[in-house]
Automatic annotation (TrEMBL):
Gene3D superfamilies assigned: CBS-domain, Clc chloride channel
Residue ranges of the TM segments: 69-93, 113-142, 252-271, 304-324, 410-429, 465-489, 495-515
Family that this chain belongs to: Belongs to the chloride channel (TC 2.A.49) family.
This protein's record includes keyword Glycoprotein: no
Protein name: Chloride channel protein
Source organism of this protein record: Spirodela intermedia (Intermediate duckweed)
Assigned GO CC terms: chloride channel complex; plant-type vacuole membrane
The entry's keywords: CBS domain, Chloride, Chloride channel, Ion channel, Ion transport, Membrane, Repeat, Transmembrane, Transmembrane helix, Transport, Voltage-gated channel
Localization (cell): Membrane
Every CBS domain range: 647-712
MF-aspect GO terms: nitrate:proton symporter activity; voltage-gated chloride channel activity
Membrane association type: Multi-pass membrane protein
């Protein structure tokens, strides 16, 4: 998270207006995968220059229809491919895990326990090593869930090498290996990342997302950051629809709904195909669905107290889990690359402990009311595994520990503490991983424990406690409410659970927010990704953008018709990605702010060598004609000029210098800006037309506090005064 969570009061009138360090320092480096990369913002804003306006005016009706058809076609392909790949991942995981379980069960039944442990350890070691080696050696960005980087991308931050073909391949194979090995992680985060990779590759015509020329002529219509963001959003939405079967999201309205609907149709069709026995050991596994639609859920006003207790404890446990996971991730970040592939390989040994503990467990008789073939199971995935028990009995802990995290039964009561510890140390290793399923399983165990404790005092169903516990721990850790409510509504398929689920989610999130940010915000902070939060810090209301601009070095501006030498000097001496264009007319008293030109556009002009022999402004037709020409400019002149007017964004977002930083943060984030120009409140002769320019790094809370230390010092002083009083 990029904001320090501190409370600020109003500014004292006796304090000086500007009390700061000499400059506003920023860091443009962040962790993407296992490497430090330079972060750049994305241009989600429409660049309304002469060339852009001419391009839109010159498009025919057919080209407009092609653009619309292309976007809907890509939405369909994203949903189709994401659903198909997710189905194949489920199929591979269930068959590998099922075959592994059959072999181990056979050895245990023969009382060859050490051979069973050795076999299980070797298989899990091989699967984990494959996932780890691929992540470390080929695509480090494929490790982890990928969701924090996707959130940063949609927030306006370019995350390099996150959506390439190699990342997609490693994410698919690594997810299969890590989940089939029985590691305490889920595949929902990787599925979201897989969806975004598919979307990015489709937008690139099959090439890598990092660059390269597009192979399809139609794709020129979406050759901009704004349309690529929409594609990434489609991919993320398609991936997030998979773990829970969710069919609708709030982003991009109809195209997103269409894409996720395609995913669900593909996934449901695949599930029905496998129900007929055509998918090997897949059976009915692979989906999380606590279907209690036929259960009559009844609760009364007296039951609200235990429901509220579930939410409070879930918020406390979720914040504690975030705190501990933060420490574990910091520890992992200190391990160098050469040791990164040893983390997951070492962790696979806990599977041997699982097996030994499962063998020592007593056997439980099957419920006589269960259908034949459901309990116990030996050759297929299921909830009641016979393992080393006699006919008619099942090993409850083996049923839990040897599952693939998608079909774990209610025996989470026994496994809760062990799963919490293993879940903490498994997430963050160099394999594709997700948090959704592990937190659901931990929350179910916690809810089941609480249900047993409250059984004498309430009439609520014990299974309902498990569902509410999972929802509470999810909200306490991830701090989501509306989306989780929809997810659990479809997971349970019971509308009667909606009111108490909403209560639990709201209470758990509120309690968790008191202690620390969400788990994904913690990961964003650890990686250094410049993510802008939707709500600015309270003390930002007491600071103006003019003060913020004064803490920065002087703004570098360009003339409308600029010397080539000056352009090269500016490009070589700065790393800025946007430059204000100021016109100094000979007879004008006041200089005019013409707009903003991007660094990439200047480089494109210089590569074309579109130079002028004299300082003059070109005609509208001349710019378009000469810029698209292949001819080189005439050589031999002492000084050459470039007319920047045709490439300048004529409508950059500008704010008055008296605007508060809090309002500027909201504006910057909501519109998706890359640059925010600050103009003086009073304009006239002798007044510069531009006060400064702000980027997302300038609006990050900890960067501002570094330039204005009196803000944090005053808050610390007030906190001490409150404590002493």
């Amino acid at each position: 998270m990029d904001a320090e969570r501190e409370e600020g009061g109003e500014r004292d009138l006796e304090e000086p207006l500007l009390k700061r360090s000499p400059s506003l320092t920023t860091s443009h480096l962040a962790m993407v995968g296992s490497k430090v990369s330079r972060m750049e913002s994305l241009d989600y804003e429409i660049i309304e220059n002469d060339l852009f306006q001419h391009d839109w005016r010159s498009r025919s009706r057919v080209e407009v229809l092609q653009y619309v058809f292309l976007k809907w076609t890509l939405a369909f392909l994203v949903g189709l491919l994401t659903g198909a790949i997710a189905s194949l991942i489920n199929l591979a995981v269930e068959n590998i895990a099922g075959a592994k379980m059959i072999a181990v069960t056979r050895l245990v039944n023969q009382q060859r326990y050490l051979a069973g442990v050795a076999y299980l350890t070797g298989i899990n070691l091989a699967l984990t090593a494959i996932a780890a080696v691929l992540c470390v050696g080929i695509a480090p960005t494929a490790a982890g869930p990928g969701i924090p980087e996707i959130k940063a991308y949609l927030n306006g931050v370019d995350t390099p090498n996150m959506y390439g073909a190699s990342t997609l391949f490693v994410k698919i194979v690594g997810s299969i290996g890590a989940v089939a090995a029985g590691l305490d992680l889920g595949k929902e985060g990787p599925l979201v990342h897989i969806g975004t990779c598919i979307a990015a590759l489709l937008g690139q015509g099959g090439g890598g997302a990092a660059g390269g020329r597009r192979r399809w002529r139609w794709l020129r219509y979406i050759d901009n950051d704004r349309d690529r963001r929409d594609l990434i959003t489609l991919g993320a939405s398609s991936g997030s629809a998979l773990p829970s079967g969710r069919r609708s999201v709030a982003a991009l309205l109809w195209r997103t709904f269409f894409s996720t609907a395609v995913v669900v149709v593909v996934l449901r069709g695949f599930t029905e195909l496998c129900d007929s026995g055509s998918c090997g050991l897949f059976g009915r596994g692979g989906l999380i669905l606590f279907d209690v639609g036929d259960v009559q859920v009844t609760y009364h006003a007296a039951d609200l107290l235990p429901v509220a207790a579930i939410g409070v404890i879930g918020g406390l446990l979720g914040s504690l889990y975030n705190f501990l996971l933060h420490k574990v991730l910091r520890f992992y970040s200190l391990i160098n690359d050469s040791e990164a592939d040893l983390e997951p390989v070492g962790l696979h040994l806990h599977l041997s402990v699982r097996l030994l503990v499962a063998i020592s467990r007593r056997c439980t008789p099957c419920d006589a009311g269960l259908p034949a073939g459901v309990c116990p199971t030996t050759s297929r995935t299921g909830k009641f595994k016979q393992f080393n028990c006699a006919a008619g009995y099942y090993n409850d802990l083996a049923s839990l520990l040897q599952s693939t995290n998608d079909d774990a039964p209610a025996a989470l009561l026994v496994f809760f503490a062990l799963y919490c510890v293993l879940g903490l140390f498994t997430f963050g290793i160099a394999v594709p991983s997700g948090l959704f399923l592990p937190i659901i399983l931990m929350g179910s165990g916690y809810g089941r424990l609480l249900g047993l404790a409250m059984k004498p005092y309430t009439q609520l169903d014990q299974g309902l406690y498990a569902v509410l516990g999972a929802a509470a721990l999810m909200a306490g850790s991830m701090r989501m409410t509306v989306s989780l409510c929809v997810i659990f509504l479809e997971l349970t398929n019971n509308l009667l659970l909606l009111p108490i689920t909403m209560i639990v989610l709201l209470i758990a999130k509120t309690v968790g927010d008191v202690f620390n940010p969400s788990i994904y915000e913690i990961i964003l902070e650890l990686k250094g990704l410049p993510f802008l939060e939707p709500n600015p810090e309270p003390w930002m209301r007491n600071l103006t953008v003019g003060e913020l601009a004064a803490a920065k070095p002087a703004v570098v501006s360009l003339s409308g018709v600029e010397r080539v030498g000056r352009l090269l000097e500016v490009l070589n001496s700065t790393t800025h990605n946007g430059f204000p264009v100021v016109d100094h007319r000979p007879k004008a008293v006041v200089a005019e702010l013409h707009g903003l030109v991007l660094r990439s556009h200047i480089i494109a002009v210089l590569r074309k060598r579109w130079f002028l022999g004299e300082r003059r402004r070109t005609e509208e037709w001349e710019a378009r004609e000469r810029f698209t020409s292949e001819d080189l400019a005439e050589r031999g002149r002492k000084e050459m000029f470039v007319d920047l007017h045709p490439f300048t964004n004529l409508t950059p977002h500008t704010v008055v210098e008296t605007m508060s930083v809090a309002k500027a943060v909201v504006l910057f984030r909501e519109i998706g800006l890359r640059h925010l120009l600050i103009v003086p409140k009073n304009q006239g002769p002798g007044v510069a037309p531009l006060v400064g320019i702000l980027t997302r790094q300038d609006l990050r809370a900890h960067n501002i506090l570094g330039a204005f230390p009196h803000i944090s010092n005053r808050k610390a002083r007030r906190n001490r005064d409150k404590a002493s009083s």
